[in-house]
Specification:
Glucose Oxidase, domain 1, 10-stranded mixed sheet, about 25% helix, Rossmann fold, 10 helices, 2 domains, globular, about 30% strand, alpha/beta, about 375 residues
């Protein structure tokens, strides 16, 4: 028998659907966001950047090719709930290991289907991202003030690894420290494919501990939440910027690097989430299609010191990339490692390799 469940937004609007995945035993409160990706739902589900959020899929049918563990971007699902118009209970794909419903149950994540996701997405686009409450009864008793005051807390701490882990290749060219703020697995895979030994370190790692590992380069990963909530990370990152070690930041890493260099960030109305976000390279004028998942951006009227904008979003003109001139570093707001998304900007990992090569050459000549 179908179980009805309800989604109430902080503006009082209510959307009705049916339960799938893990049973909803109590109400769930989280930020409601949408993604426009047509494929890659497994990567979306396992992306740690969705911590503290309910994710709405704008594509109407989800689950038709099942779930395969080799597509995971992390070890589990970090989002709070999953919202779709229709889910496929009988996937058909030779790679499928199990279906979407089972996967959500396995991770204790509730899902809601049969909801009017088009209307919900239009509401978010017009009014902006809102906090929502998922419950099994009409949640008229839920005061809107409870939802408006709710915030995501300790986001990075809750998704980062808790211990340092080494990943080695047979003939390493460089040693990279990957600072884990909620890193997607394909960032690690991309570095390993380019013959880098990678040491993944927790978000609590200090600059002294990082430098003691003697890295050729430092990678700042993606992650969830408001970048300004990470004051200790920003403080340690500021110290690393004076070390002259090449730094490459992605998504949250891009925002944190900007804040460490006296830039500023702000929250977008409804963010950029999907696999079809166009960005323009400022130097060439060329447009790339990118995968993105973020709700904050670096303010173009408060850029970091001694930096220039390298990429902009074609749709709204927001900052999508920065190059730094006082130290060897660059960052992008989008995901060049996109798995399940476009690979247009994968060359940025080679750009990071070239930066480390230049650093080694300079050290040898000195």
């Amino acid at each position: 028998m179908k179980q009805k469940i309800y989604l109430q937004l902080e503006d009082g609007s209510i959307y009705e659907g049916y339960s799938f995945g893990a049973p909803l035993l109590h109400h769930v409160i989280a930020e409601v966001v949408f993604t426009t990706a047509m494929t890659g739902y497994v990567e979306t589900l396992t992306d740690p950047s969705y911590y503290g959020q309910m994710v709405v899929q704008t594509f109407p049918l989800i689950g038709n090719y099942g779930v395969n563990t080799s597509d995971f971007e992390s070890r589990k699902i970090y989002m709070s709930a999953y919202i779709v118009h229709e889910y496929c209970p009988t996937p058909s794909n030779f790679r499928s290991q199990f279906d979407l419903d089972f996967f959500l149950k396995q991770n204790n994540i509730p899902g809601i289907y049969g909801i009017d996701t088009r209307a919900l997405t239009k509401k978010i686009r017009s009014k902006g991202v809102m906090v929502g409450c998922l419950s099994t009864s009409l949640p008229a008793h839920m005061e809107s003030s409870v939802l408006t005051k709710w915030t995501i807390k300790d986001a990075v701490k809750n998704v980062s690894c808790t211990a340092t882990k080494q990943h080695n290749v047979s003939l390493p060219k460089f040693h990279v420290v990957l600072w884990d703020f909620g890193a997607k697995e394909n960032i690690l895979r991309s570095l390993l494919r380019l013959d880098c030994d990678v040491t993944v370190v927790p978000s609590s790692t200090t600059s002294e501990e990082t430098l003691a590992l003697k890295p050729d380069g430092i990678m700042l990963s993606n992650g969830p939440g408001n970048p300004k909530d990470n004051s200790s990370i920003i403080r340690e990152l500021r110290k690393l910027c004076s070390s002259n070690i090449p730094i490459f930041g992605i998504c949250l890493g891009h925002q944190l690097l900007a804040l460490a260099n006296d830039g500023d960030t702000e929250k977008l109305k409804y963010g950029h989430r999907g696999a079809n976000q166009p960005v323009k390279e400022v130097s060439s004028g060329r447009t790339y299609i990118t995968s993105q998942n973020h709700g904050y951006t670096v303010r173009t009227d408060a850029l970091p010191l001694d930096s220039t904008v390298s990429y902009i979003n074609v749709n709204d003109g927001t900052c999508e990339g920065l190059t730094y001139h006082s130290f060897p570093g660059f960052s992008v707001q989008f995901h060049p490692e996109a798995c399940g998304g476009p690979h247009d900007t994968a060359f940025l990992f080679q750009q990071f390799i070239d930066l480390m090569e230049g650093g080694k050459k300079h050290a040898t000549e000195s």
